Each structure stands twice: as C-alpha cells, then as structure tokens.
C-alpha cells in the first residue's frame, strides 16, 4: 500500500531559545500547542492527518543544555534533546546501560536516529516504542517541568494508554533520570520485526538480571508492543527471584510473561502469534542476561 504524504497543515511555529520561554509559551497556549524535539513522530502524523493540527508548534531544538548526557553520584541524566543516535553511541550509556544502547540501535534508520530523541520516543507513547521496555527494566524516572514547578514520575506511571501519557498540557519532559544499575547486572533487548531494520516491533522484550552463584538475586522483565502500554512482567519476575536458574524455571517464567501480555490482532501480526513470541523472546532474553546463551 502506498502512503501519500500531504503538505503540512497550517500552524504557528514558535522557536524559544530558553526553557523558561518554552514553558511560558506552553502555558500561554495551553491546550492549543504541541511540543517537538526532533519531530520525527509528530511531523509525519501531521502530514498524514492522523492527528489534528495544533494552533502552535513549539520547537525545543534551539534551547541550549537540553542535549547533554550527564553523570552524577546517583546515575545518568539524559536531556530532552539527546538524540537516539547519541544514546546509541554514547560510551557512558554503552558501558553502564548497554540495554538502552541496544534498544536505540534497533530503532528506525540512521537518519531518524540522528534527528529523533529518546524523550520524544517516550512522549509519543506508542505501545511498540523500543526505548520503553529498556527504560522500564532500568527503573528510569522522568523529570516533568512547567511554570508551576517540577515533578518526577516513574516511567511505569508515565504511560496511561496508547499515545497517552501523564504529561499535562503545560508540562515538558525535561530529563530522563537513570539510576545506577546493580553490580554484576546484565541487560538485553530483543526485538522481533518482519525486517532486519527500519521496522516497528511486533514484540519487544527487555530483561535485566543480577545472577549470583547461579541464583537469581534480582531480575526485571519488560514487554513492548503486546499491550496498550509497555509493561513490566512482574509475575514472571517473581517466578525467578531468589531461585536457582534452570531451564524449567526459565520456561515457567517465559510462559508466565506470555500470560501477562494483552496483544491485539492487527495487520502486522495476530494476538496469538505475538503471545507465542513473547514466550520465545523472554526465554532467550533471560538466558542471554545470565550468560547461558549467546
């Protein structure tokens, strides 16, 4: 099927140069404005008329300081303008949060990764967002700011439905906060797509494990593209925690995760196929995270 792109609809384009100016504009045009960082999600949707045109588009690209990855005593901070490509290639992220670098590498094309942002991928809030399962297993927290102040929201509480988030009309996602990973932890992100690249996930699975002498000290498993929002497979995690890893237990955890999925039938895959693939990918992800499978 051929997709015909139209011209962009008319809107007022605003380009603030400071965060205070952006927040002022957002408050002034509350409910009538959309914020863009990279624009790789919003602009195509506007062209295809998948969403209504806002009266104002506020572009954050001209605001200095939002494109930084910073390390502090508690973890890593990713600014709202940090591109997917920068996350993919950052030595800090590769070393300490390799699962997020894997997820970034799996997304779209190099051109899109060099323009689109991780923050935008989260705010778009599609169930298949590749960054979301990885961030769920890391335990990321999101700094939301407005003229009224700021608040921090755990990523598990950020997604409220397909393309819906906890952001209000006056708020901007300013930073993604990544707490330090537990010692000896290893994470992996696995993505099932019809093509090797430039495709949305049919199923996405992230797993971070902390093995100790063959025992599961801790584990986090997250699923994408198989429910209205990305989700933690907490029941599957409980199957493994405190137990000695073995094939039977891993198989039980994989089946439990598949049971927690709530996939739909669509043109890309059936619900039954997605659920089966959750089981397969969770099994593989756990084994790779504990180093028992390449």
The helix/strand class is alpha+beta
What strand order characterises the main sheet?
4-5-10-6-7
SSE run: EHEHEEEHHHHHHEEHEEEEEEEHHH
Give the radius of gyration. Answer: 19 Å
Helix content: 25-40%
Number of strand segments: 14
Intertermini distance: 38 Å
Note poorly predicted spans.
none
CATH topology of the largest domain: Uridine Diphospho-n-acetylenolpyruvylglucosamine Reductase, domain 3
Helical segment count: 12
Q: Could you give a quick summary of the protein structure above?
A:
By secondary structure, this protein is an alpha+beta fold. Helices cover 34% and strands 25% of the residues. The protein folds into 3 domains: 48 residues, 2-Layer Sandwich (Uridine Diphospho-n-acetylenolpyruvylglucosamine Reductase, domain 2), CATH 3.30.43; 111 residues, 2-Layer Sandwich (Uridine Diphospho-n-acetylenolpyruvylglucosamine Reductase, domain 3), CATH 3.30.465; 103 residues, Enolase-like, domain 1, CATH 3.30.390.50.
How would you describe this structure to a colleague?
- By secondary structure, this protein is an alpha+beta fold.
- It has 3 domains: 12-59, Uridine Diphospho-n-acetylenolpyruvylglucosamine Reductase, domain 2, CATH 3.30.43; 69-179, Uridine Diphospho-n-acetylenolpyruvylglucosamine Reductase, domain 3 (2-Layer Sandwich); 187-289, Enolase-like, domain 1 (2-Layer Sandwich), CATH 3.30.390.50.
- Helices cover 34% and strands 25% of the residues.
- It contains 12 helices and 14 strands.
- The strands form 4 sheets. A 5-stranded antiparallel sheet has the order 4-5-10-6-7. The chain has a 4-stranded antiparallel sheet with strand order 11-12-13-14, sandwiched between helices.
- Strand 12 and strand 13 form a beta hairpin.
- Helix 10 (234-240) packs antiparallel against helix 11 and helix 11 packs antiparallel against helix 12 (271-289).
- The mean pLDDT is 95.
